[in-house]
Amino acid sequence: MGTVSPTDSNISPPYNKDFTAVGAAAPRKLDAGALFVLKSAGSWLHCGYHLTTAIVAPALLSLPFALALLGWGRGMVVLALAGIVTFYSYNLLSLVLEHHAALGHRQLRFRDMAHDILGPGWGRYYVGPLQLGSCYGAVIACILLGGQSLKFIYLLAIPDGSMQLSHFIAIFGNFTLILAQIPSFHSLRHINLVSLILCFAYCACTTVGAIYIGDSKKAPPKNYSLTGVGINRVFGFFNAISIICTTYGNGIIPEIHATIAAPVKGKMFKGLLVCYTVVISNYFSVGISGYWAFGNKVQSSVLQNFMVGSNPLLPKWFLLMTNSFTVLQVAACTLVYLQPSNVVFERKFADPEKGQLSVRNFVPRLISRSLSVIIATTLAAMLPFFGDIMALFGAFGCIPLDFILPMVFYNLTFKPSKKRIVFWVNTVIGVASTGLSLIGAVASVRQIILDARTYRLFANM
Length: 461
Known about the structure:
Organism: Lactuca sativa
Subcellular location: Membrane
Oligomer: single chain
InterPro entries: AA_transpt_TM (IPR013057)
GO cellular component, one term: membrane
Number of domains: 1
Distance between the termini: 43 Å
CATH architecture: Up-down Bundle
Helix content: 55-70%
GO molecular function: amino acid transmembrane transporter activity
CATH topology: Amino acid/polyamine transporter I
């Protein structure tokens, strides 16, 4: 999908030597969070690595389950449509960011965009907390998933092992605590390149494994009929749509854009092309192969179908390799979603007049980031049913940040005429996404109530 040309005002103005538009206002002085964490030194290729790690996470292993709730036809339509809408949405955000950068006022955070476009209260009291809560929730979910994957590897090697899930969450949390000290978002570019490669690796393993099982004598009977009746089936549809939307979610597009060195025009679009090449190839291969192999018996993570009880349907070395790739990639995801809270800590505790690695700034950074990871790890171990809660975060956080606010920001910034199709496309997406967010929230609360009787703190799930 090409970029949308809003108005003649989007045509690049002449630039000064500092890459601001001629006659533009002087740039604002940066606080320590923007100066240190969101260092603008990356290329469009680095941007592609960051985008891919933020979007393509092991949560995509739930796509076959979502397709099973929708069926082949509806499932493929929703999967394709969500990809098209999010690509369009992220491109709109990049156009707004480029527009303000050309005017000499570069917006480096989601809350900065809301502050300038909607008003100070929106940035401080709605968008800022919404993004921070959603991203920190994603950190907790990633640490939980990392611990679950480590436990799976352990039980493959030692089936009668006595270690609990909380032990593996603590191990993964300690690993994350060390990596969390990497000073800036831009510093993650090499880790996120490895993450991109790992995405292909575990998705290829998952696809090959599903096809192998589905074509073997071990395959379960294939049944693609929809499960549930009445209201349960309806909520299943909306649950599936929420799962698919969340797997395409990002929530930190402005922060990723902030890592790009000036001039920024066109670079985000190239990064999105890199990212969505990975997204489309992996999402469709995992979703289609998993649903084809297991039908409506597919589990919430398709890797669970690779085991029947304690008996693996694939060679142990293959399952160990697949889960090892997953653990390493989810670690990179965790680091990416720590960045918004890192920005807040640096802004609060660091001194922009001192060096980033000076003792004055290093000690507060070490303490604040360590406490952040320790709290997230404790919550992940305490709430192993956090997946249900994260669905609620997705409804209230992911959908507004990725499907609603980009449309609002674009229409308010460029003010397209109501006679133009872009205005109505944005309006329809925004209104439909608002309805989906509300219904998804109701469905998530309903699922929490249904599962509440199984909840137990520090459960060994």
